[in-house]
Write a structure and sequence with these properties.
Rossmann fold, two-stranded parallel sheet, 3 helices, globular
Length: 84
Amino acid sequence: MGASRIIAIDTNPNKESWAKKFGAHEFINPTDLGDKKIQDHLIEVTDGGLDFTFDGTGNVRPFMFKKKNRGCRWIFMGVGYRPR
């Protein structure tokens, strides 16, 4: 059993082919969404939210999504993250 849908998110469009090479089914560049927040876009395109998310940026801002998507399980890889 594996993931039925893997969505890669990055602001660098050059990473799309790399993401798909490593298994992403879709690629979303948040800067292409205009004024729409990535969180709102993900809720919309996934019909309500995500079951699991993985963050490797070290940026805690995306974790605000959890407040809107209560059923989501976060896995924080902590790449580049230094606890304070």
